[in-house]
Amino acid sequence: MIDTALTRMFGLRHPIVLGPMGGVAGGRLAAAVSNAGGLGLVGGGYGDPDWMRTELAIAAADARAPWGVGLITWAANDDLVALALRYRPHAFMLSFGDPLPFVAAIKAAGCKLICQVQDLDTARQARDAGADLIVAQGTEGGGHGGVRATLPLVPAVVDAVAPIPVLAAGGIADGRGVAAALMLGAQGALIGTRFYACTEALGHARAKQRIADAGGAETARTRVFDIVRGYDWPGGYTGRAIVNRFMRRWHGQESGLAANVDTERAAFFDAAREGDIETAMVWAGEAVDLIDRIEDAATLVERIGQGAEAQLRAASGWLVAQ
């Protein structure tokens, strides 16, 4: 078993955390990851209260081990945080914005605060706000993120926020990625896309299969899906998705999309309901190269965890006495 600050903090068997993918990481998936020895996080996203009540209740009822919840910080408010805390999660992750307004409430509830960052400035902000764990998210990851790559970002964040433990995210989908994260100084890995292509995930079956079929070169960062949905993301953040017909039409033509957004929005949400993945986005990272089938969460946690252990044991054999 791998013993790190992360595994000790939550009593985990594997240094693996489920990325709180909005609308995808529901209560069933979070509970399955936690019950398999990782840390499952419900993806509260922009904070739909009805959705959160349903999924948090499932996680609270089904998880037999620590679990948590995540929100997009700039879209959060005191009421949403209080709602989530009523379900007594063990961890609360905030991403994309200043966590400070919510720290006191989270800490008072006995939750561990996880802050996801994309650069050194926001890493120091999270450190000063009182984060218990900091996730250094590289641009290779699916969904929203920044521009820094995982490999150089993680050790830089480790150095900047020490002794606060750091998790690596972005482009990690197997045991080799987890082992690499540990060698960079991280205490574990946060994994999203690999768990999107999972039986317990809430995504449409076509989206899951598209992830299993895609290659990393088929993903790209864009703003077009935020524009059409009406989400005013702060500057510097884009979303990585699998390139589809909608992205090919509008990427680079954002002003034209904004001018036609009323017409395009109705068609977009119809497509999302119907599982039309040539119009609706499939958020996914470059690690889709390493995903070839849809599996259950427990199988994934165990295989990724054992794969990381095997990789670390093998690496130790590379050292020879001189």
Structure characterization notes:
Helices cover 44% and strands 15% of the residues. The model has no long low-confidence stretch (mean pLDDT 97). It is of the alpha/beta class and 322 residues long. The protein is built from 15 helices and 11 strands. Helix 4 runs parallel beside helix 5 and helix 8 (175-183) crosses helix 15 (297-316). The radius of gyration is 19 Å and the shape is globular. It has helices spanning 5-10, 27-35, 49-62, 78-85, 100-108, 120-129, 150-161, 175-183, 193-196, 205-213, 224-229, 245-250, 254-259, 261-274, 297-316, and strands at residues 16-18, 40-43, 67-72, 91-95, 112-117, 133-137, 143-145, 166-169, 189-191, 219-222, 238-242.
Summarize the structure.
The protein is of the alpha/beta class and 322 residues long. The protein contains 15 helices and eleven strands. Strands 1-9-8-6-5-4-3-2 form an eight-stranded parallel β-sheet.
The N- and C-terminal alpha carbons lie at a distance of 29 Å
Largest sheet: 8 strands, parallel
- Radius of gyration from the alpha-carbon trace, in angstroms: 19 Å
- How would you classify the helix and strand content by structural class? alpha/beta
Number of separate strands: 11
- Percent range for β-strand residues: 5-15%
Task: Reconstruct the topology from this structure.
Blueprint (H helix, E strand, L loop, with lengths): L4 H6 L5 E3 L8 H9 L4 E4 L5 H14 L4 E6 L5 H8 L5 E5 L4 H9 L3 E6 L2 H10 L3 E5 L5 E3 L4 H12 L4 E4 L5 H9 L5 E3 L1 H4 L8 H9 L5 E4 L1 H6 L8 E5 L2 H6 L3 H6 L1 H14 L22 H20 L6
Parallel strand pairs: 1-9, 2-3, 3-4, 4-5, 5-6, 6-8, 8-9
Antiparallel strand pairs: 7-11, 10-11
Helix pairs in contact: 2-3, 4-5, 6-7, 8-15
